[in-house]
Amino acid sequence: MKIVYLAVAALALVLPAQALAGGNQPNSAQLCNAQRTAMGAKDFAALYGAGPQHRNAFGRCVSALERAAQADEDNAAQACKAEQADTSFPASHGGKSFADWYGRNHKKSDAYGNCVAQKAHAAAAARQQATLNAARSCKSERATGAAAFRTKYGTNKTKSNAFARCVAANRG
Questions:
Q1: Amino acid 2: pLDDT
Q2: Hey, what long-range contacts does 7-12 have (CB within 8 A, 24 or more apart)?
Protein backbone atom coordinates (compact mmCIF):
# COMPACT_ATOMS: atom_id res chain seq x y z
CA MET A 1 0.00 0.00 0.00
CA LYS A 2 2.94 2.31 0.69
CA ILE A 3 4.02 1.88 -2.92
CA VAL A 4 0.63 3.12 -4.14
CA TYR A 5 0.87 6.21 -1.93
CA LEU A 6 4.41 6.88 -3.13
CA ALA A 7 3.33 6.53 -6.75
CA VAL A 8 0.42 8.94 -6.24
CA ALA A 9 2.69 11.41 -4.44
CA ALA A 10 5.28 11.19 -7.21
CA LEU A 11 2.60 11.67 -9.83
CA ALA A 12 1.29 14.72 -7.96
CA LEU A 13 4.75 16.25 -8.17
CA VAL A 14 5.25 15.32 -11.81
CA LEU A 15 2.00 16.63 -13.25
CA PRO A 16 2.34 20.26 -12.08
CA ALA A 17 5.92 20.39 -13.35
CA GLN A 18 4.74 19.21 -16.74
CA ALA A 19 1.90 21.72 -16.75
CA LEU A 20 4.34 24.55 -16.05
CA ALA A 21 6.42 23.46 -19.01
CA GLY A 22 3.49 24.48 -21.19
CA GLY A 23 2.68 23.42 -24.69
CA ASN A 24 0.48 20.58 -25.78
CA GLN A 25 3.06 17.89 -25.28
CA PRO A 26 1.84 14.83 -23.39
CA ASN A 27 3.27 14.37 -19.93
CA SER A 28 4.90 11.20 -18.65
CA ALA A 29 1.69 9.90 -17.09
CA GLN A 30 -0.15 10.32 -20.40
CA LEU A 31 2.65 8.55 -22.26
CA CYS A 32 2.55 5.68 -19.75
CA ASN A 33 -1.24 5.43 -20.14
CA ALA A 34 -0.81 5.25 -23.90
CA GLN A 35 1.80 2.51 -23.55
CA ARG A 36 -0.37 0.51 -21.14
CA THR A 37 -3.32 0.79 -23.53
CA ALA A 38 -1.27 -0.15 -26.59
CA MET A 39 0.57 -3.13 -25.13
CA GLY A 40 -1.95 -4.33 -22.58
CA ALA A 41 -1.80 -4.22 -18.80
CA LYS A 42 0.00 -7.55 -18.42
CA ASP A 43 2.86 -6.69 -20.79
CA PHE A 44 3.06 -3.14 -19.43
CA ALA A 45 3.47 -4.59 -15.93
CA ALA A 46 6.10 -7.03 -17.20
CA LEU A 47 7.99 -4.17 -18.83
CA TYR A 48 8.01 -1.71 -15.93
CA GLY A 49 6.97 -3.59 -12.79
CA ALA A 50 9.33 -4.54 -9.98
CA GLY A 51 9.99 -8.09 -8.83
CA PRO A 52 8.33 -11.30 -9.92
CA GLN A 53 4.86 -9.80 -9.26
CA HIS A 54 5.66 -6.79 -11.49
CA ARG A 55 4.51 -4.28 -8.86
CA ASN A 56 4.16 -0.51 -9.28
CA ALA A 57 4.55 -0.58 -13.04
CA PHE A 58 2.79 2.72 -13.61
CA GLY A 59 4.86 4.64 -11.07
CA ARG A 60 8.06 3.12 -12.37
CA CYS A 61 7.07 4.00 -15.95
CA VAL A 62 6.38 7.63 -14.99
CA SER A 63 9.71 7.84 -13.16
CA ALA A 64 11.61 6.35 -16.09
CA LEU A 65 9.97 8.67 -18.60
CA GLU A 66 10.58 11.69 -16.37
CA ARG A 67 14.29 10.86 -16.22
CA ALA A 68 14.35 10.40 -19.97
CA ALA A 69 12.49 13.70 -20.50
CA GLN A 70 15.06 15.54 -18.40
CA ALA A 71 17.87 13.99 -20.43
CA ASP A 72 16.04 14.95 -23.64
CA GLU A 73 15.73 18.53 -22.45
CA ASP A 74 19.41 18.70 -21.48
CA ASN A 75 20.47 17.28 -24.85
CA ALA A 76 18.10 19.61 -26.69
CA ALA A 77 19.48 22.62 -24.81
CA GLN A 78 23.02 21.70 -25.84
CA ALA A 79 21.98 21.18 -29.45
CA CYS A 80 20.11 24.50 -29.54
CA LYS A 81 23.04 26.38 -28.04
CA ALA A 82 25.24 24.91 -30.76
CA GLU A 83 22.75 25.88 -33.47
CA GLN A 84 22.41 29.35 -32.02
CA ALA A 85 26.19 29.82 -32.11
CA ASP A 86 26.58 28.33 -35.59
CA THR A 87 27.34 31.13 -38.03
CA SER A 88 26.39 28.90 -40.97
CA PHE A 89 22.87 28.25 -39.57
CA PRO A 90 21.10 30.39 -42.23
CA ALA A 91 22.79 28.48 -45.06
CA SER A 92 21.11 25.24 -44.02
CA HIS A 93 17.77 26.80 -43.01
CA GLY A 94 16.59 28.62 -46.11
CA GLY A 95 18.46 31.82 -45.28
CA LYS A 96 16.66 32.25 -41.95
CA SER A 97 18.50 33.12 -38.78
CA PHE A 98 18.13 31.02 -35.64
CA ALA A 99 15.64 33.57 -34.26
CA ASP A 100 13.63 33.64 -37.49
CA TRP A 101 13.61 29.84 -37.76
CA TYR A 102 12.47 29.10 -34.20
CA GLY A 103 11.01 32.42 -33.00
CA ARG A 104 7.24 32.71 -32.81
CA ASN A 105 6.58 36.00 -31.04
CA HIS A 106 6.98 39.39 -32.70
CA LYS A 107 10.43 39.97 -31.16
CA LYS A 108 11.60 36.40 -31.83
CA SER A 109 12.79 36.30 -28.21
CA ASP A 110 11.26 32.86 -27.71
CA ALA A 111 13.48 31.16 -30.29
CA TYR A 112 15.75 29.30 -27.87
CA GLY A 113 12.86 27.95 -25.79
CA ASN A 114 10.98 26.87 -28.90
CA CYS A 115 14.08 25.13 -30.22
CA VAL A 116 14.56 23.20 -26.97
CA ALA A 117 10.87 22.28 -26.80
CA GLN A 118 10.77 21.03 -30.41
CA LYS A 119 13.88 18.92 -30.05
CA ALA A 120 12.89 17.46 -26.66
CA HIS A 121 9.39 16.68 -27.95
CA ALA A 122 10.80 14.95 -31.03
CA ALA A 123 13.10 12.81 -28.86
CA ALA A 124 10.22 11.83 -26.55
CA ALA A 125 8.00 10.94 -29.51
CA ALA A 126 10.76 8.82 -31.06
CA ARG A 127 11.35 6.99 -27.76
CA GLN A 128 7.62 6.37 -27.31
CA GLN A 129 7.32 4.94 -30.81
CA ALA A 130 10.45 2.81 -30.37
CA THR A 131 9.06 1.37 -27.13
CA LEU A 132 5.71 0.55 -28.70
CA ASN A 133 7.35 -0.98 -31.78
CA ALA A 134 9.67 -3.09 -29.62
CA ALA A 135 6.76 -4.27 -27.46
CA ARG A 136 4.81 -5.29 -30.59
CA SER A 137 7.82 -7.16 -31.92
CA CYS A 138 8.37 -8.93 -28.58
CA LYS A 139 4.71 -9.92 -28.32
CA SER A 140 4.95 -11.43 -31.78
CA GLU A 141 8.17 -13.27 -31.01
CA ARG A 142 6.75 -14.57 -27.71
CA ALA A 143 3.65 -15.84 -29.53
CA THR A 144 5.80 -18.10 -31.70
CA GLY A 145 7.17 -19.93 -28.66
CA ALA A 146 6.89 -18.77 -25.06
CA ALA A 147 9.47 -21.19 -23.63
CA ALA A 148 12.07 -20.29 -26.23
CA PHE A 149 11.29 -16.61 -25.68
CA ARG A 150 11.85 -16.92 -21.91
CA THR A 151 15.07 -18.84 -22.49
CA LYS A 152 16.39 -16.29 -24.97
CA TYR A 153 15.58 -13.14 -22.97
CA GLY A 154 15.21 -14.22 -19.33
CA THR A 155 18.05 -14.24 -16.82
CA ASN A 156 19.35 -17.39 -15.16
CA LYS A 157 17.57 -16.69 -11.87
CA THR A 158 14.16 -15.84 -13.26
CA LYS A 159 12.53 -15.88 -16.63
CA SER A 160 9.83 -13.39 -15.55
CA ASN A 161 11.81 -10.44 -16.86
CA ALA A 162 12.03 -11.78 -20.42
CA PHE A 163 9.54 -9.31 -21.89
CA ALA A 164 11.34 -6.29 -20.40
CA ARG A 165 14.70 -7.57 -21.59
CA CYS A 166 13.30 -8.20 -25.07
CA VAL A 167 11.86 -4.67 -25.29
CA ALA A 168 15.17 -3.20 -24.12
CA ALA A 169 17.07 -5.21 -26.70
CA ASN A 170 14.72 -4.25 -29.54
CA ARG A 171 14.16 -0.60 -28.63
CA GLY A 172 17.34 0.38 -30.34
A1: 43
A2: 7/56, 7/58, 7/59, 7/62, 10/59, 10/62, 10/63, 11/59, 11/62
